[in-house]
């Protein structure tokens, strides 16, 4: 009895004692470069960015405090902001779902015994490999130009083509197509996910007489849903930040029909050096991306299935 | 009722589909050998290939040949690769193996930066680098990568942490018993064992920086220091007559290094892309 009390009191004493770290000094030494980077190149710039957003600031003279004026101007008076936001939202709403749809369908087709699988995977992945480069943008500019490949193709069927890049109603669509064409990396992720679904689930469903559509809806989709969520979040965040393609292929035009958000930000910040206003734009973009991501996560409770939680 | 798609038709469909996917690239190859007059002909390959497109394109930018721009790009990316591999593996080792106060807090920060869109940092980082006098040097690329917070840094650290956690801990425990320092464990035990993951990091780092345009556009402004991407941009901006054949030839050449890397390291690729999604 007596020894019991002493032993339990020593345990309490031990647990109250501050935890002894095995390697506190080594830990911080190894982490030091990264921590310096986070403080100087991430944390400090974030604070400064918010400060700049409350000022009028060209890089040449000192920031002049204006409070929330930049924000109110952007939100209530700036037509270019509205146009660029509209273009960006349209881009995200079309590019992301189509890209993921293609990625999923092709991944499912490739997830079978197929001769030459790695060859096909390579061919399909290829456009993603070089997707963001200037080179591809130049290619696209040519393919969808007045005398480009697309017009030659429809010329065979007797249609007269136009310059798809220079028409306000098709310019954005060509950029969306360019991004959808690069569905390869999402596809590779889906393919890896599909390979992890246990085959006996499908076998058991076959025994019960399920057809492929039931299997797809009841097995493939739920088992793959965490990966769909991952791809959806990553692709959405990326799509909001689209820049290079619009900058090279269409330069935002014609009549601002492809003037995406980051292009506006770039032009204000680094062509006109209105760094305060550009910072406010950046924070609004961050907020929009955060809201979009939060909505995706919120909706995911309805459709993402986690095995270790025993389903919903 | 238990029918699946016929294997043969599946095979044919996939074949046709992959052909459609790479068709623009084939067309690219063909068009790079065409003269401007032939550009609108529907044949993919010209009957009289204009090989001089490649030579004229190579020297199309006044005063500098593309050799110069390739060397610049390799200088930039070489430094970025080296600094990234060192800084990211150091941080990953700390997270995977060492026990220190606030470890979980710092790891949470890492995960936050994984998702942080970079635009918020663009303006103040530019102001900072301008103040350091780093504009028009490669330092705005080297220094962030040396501190593990360059583009993709958080992702690389995260990936390396996942990989290092899979290496048996007994190895470093026994080395500790023998009085081995943490640095020697990192350098002589962990680094060799982490090699496959380091290769993957290297490949992604190479490709992302090869593709990067925004950063180069911001920080490099003299033609002497231009990378290939900027040189291509200069090429299309300065030509009024649009020599498409030469432009397509030069842009085709600009993706060759990326393609070579891809074909030699396909296995790493698939693993690397999937790692973040499946293990995270």
Keywords:
heterodimer; A: 312 residues; mainly alpha; MetI-like fold; two-stranded antiparallel ribbon; 2 strands; 72% helix; globular; B: 280 residues; 71% helix
Q: Count all strands of chain A and give the number.
A: 2
CATH architecture of chain A: Orthogonal Bundle
Structural class of chain A: mainly alpha
- Cross-sheet strand order for the largest sheet of chain A: 1-2
Question: Overview of this structure, please?
Answer:
The complex is a heterodimer of chains A (312) and B (280). By secondary structure, chain A is an all-alpha fold. Chain A has a single domain, classed as MetI-like (MetI-like fold), CATH 1.10.3720. Helix content of chain A is 72%, strand content 1%. In chain A, strands 1-2 form a two-stranded antiparallel sheet. In chain A, helix 4 crosses helix 13 and helix 6 (134-143) crosses helix 12 (244-250). Chain B is mostly helical. Chain B has 15 helices and no strands. Chains A and B meet through helix 2, helix 4, helix 5, helix 6 and helix 7 of A and helix 1, helix 3, helix 4, helix 5 and helix 9 of B.
Show the helix and strand layout.
The complex is a heterodimer of chains A (312) and B (280).
Chain A: H1 2-16, H2 24-53, E1 55-56, E2 64-65, H3 69-77, H4 79-110, H5 117-129, H6 134-143, H7 149-156, H8 171-181, H9 184-195, H10 199-207, H11 212-240, H12 244-250, H13 261-271, H14 275-303
Antiparallel strand pairs in A: 1-2
Helix pairs in contact in A: 2-14, 4-8, 4-9, 4-11, 4-13, 5-9, 6-12, 9-11, 11-14, 13-14
Chain B: H1 7-31, H2 52-58, H3 66-97, H4 103-115, H5 119-132, H6 139-146, H7 153-165, H8 170-177, H9 182-193, H10 195-211, H11 214-219, H12 228-238, H13 244-254, H14 256-264, H15 266-279
Helix pairs in contact in B: 2-13, 3-6, 3-7, 3-10, 4-7, 7-15, 8-9, 10-15, 12-13
């Amino acid at each position: 009895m007596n020894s019991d009390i002493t032993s339990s009191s020593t345990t309490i004493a031990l647990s109250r004692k501050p935890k002894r770290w095995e390697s506190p000094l080594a830990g911080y030494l190894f982490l030091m470069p990264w921590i310096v980077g986070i403080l100087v190149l991430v944390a400090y710039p974030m604070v400064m960015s918010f400060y700049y957003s409350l000022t009028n600031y060209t890089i040449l003279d000192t920031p002049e405090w204006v409070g929330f004026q930049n924000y109110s101007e952007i939100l209530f008076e700036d037509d270019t902001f509205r146009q660029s936001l509209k273009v960006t939202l349209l881009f995200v709403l079309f590019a992301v779902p189509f890209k993921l749809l293609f990625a999923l369908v092709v991944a499912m087709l490739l997830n079978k015994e197929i001769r030459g699988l790695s060859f096909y995977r390579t061919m399909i992945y290829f456009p993603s490999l070089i997707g963001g480069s200037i080179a591809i943008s130049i290619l696209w500019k040519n393919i969808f130009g007045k005398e480009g490949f697309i017009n030659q193709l429809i010329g065979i069927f007797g249609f007269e083509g136009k310059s798809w890049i220079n028409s306000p109603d098709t310019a954005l669509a060509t950029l969306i197509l360019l991004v959808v064409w690069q569905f390869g990396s999402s596809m590779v992720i889906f393919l890896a996910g599909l390979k992890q679904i246990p085959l006996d689930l499908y076998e058991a469903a076959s025994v019960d007489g399920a057809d492929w559509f039931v299997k797809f809806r009841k097995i493939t989709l739920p088992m793959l849903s965490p990966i769909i969520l991952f791809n959806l979040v990553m692709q959405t965040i990326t799509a909001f930040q689209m820049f290079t393609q619009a900058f090279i292929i269409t330069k935002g035009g014609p009549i601002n029909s492809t003037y995406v958000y980051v292009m506006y930000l770039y032009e204000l910040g680094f062509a006109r050096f209105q760094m305060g206003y550009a910072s406010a734009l950046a924070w609004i973009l961050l907020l929009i991306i955060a809201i979009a991501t939060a909505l995706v996560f919120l909706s995911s409770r309805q459709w993402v299935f986690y095995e270790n939680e025993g389903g919903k | 009722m238990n029918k699946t798609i016929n294997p043969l038709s599946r095979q044919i469909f996939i074949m046709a589909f992959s052909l459609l996917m790479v068709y623009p690239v084939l067309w690219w190859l063909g068009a790079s050998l065409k003269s401007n007059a032939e550009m609108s002909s529907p044949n993919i390959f010209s009957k009289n290939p204009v090989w001089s497109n490649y030579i004229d394109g190579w020297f199309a930018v006044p005063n500098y040949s593309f050799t110069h721009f390739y060397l610049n790009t390799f200088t930039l990316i070489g430094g970025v690769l080296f600094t990234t591999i060192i800084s990211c593996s150091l941080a990953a080792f700390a997270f995977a193996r060492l026990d220190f106060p606030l470890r979980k807090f710092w790891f949470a920060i890492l995960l936050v930066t994984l998702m942080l869109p970079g635009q918020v940092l663009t303006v103040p980082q530019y102001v900072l680098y301008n103040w350091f006098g780093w504009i028009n040097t490669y330092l705005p690329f080297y220094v962030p990568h040396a501190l593990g917070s360059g583009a993709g840094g958080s992702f690389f650290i995260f990936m390396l942490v996942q990989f290092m956690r899979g290496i048996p801990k007994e190895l470093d425990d026994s080395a500790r018993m023998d009085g081995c320092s943490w640095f020697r464990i990192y350098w002589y035990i962990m680094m060799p064992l982490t090699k496959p993951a380091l290769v993957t990091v290297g490949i992604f780092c190479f490709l992302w920086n090869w593709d990067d345009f925004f950063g180069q556009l911001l920080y490099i402004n003299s033609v002497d220091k231009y990378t290939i991407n900027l040189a291509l941009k200069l090429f299309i901006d300065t030509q009024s007559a649009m020599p498409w054949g030469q432009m397509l030839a030069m842009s085709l050449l600009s993706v060759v290094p990326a393609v070579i890397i891809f074909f030699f390291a396909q296995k790493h690729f698939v693993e690397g892309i999937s790692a973040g999604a499946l293990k995270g």
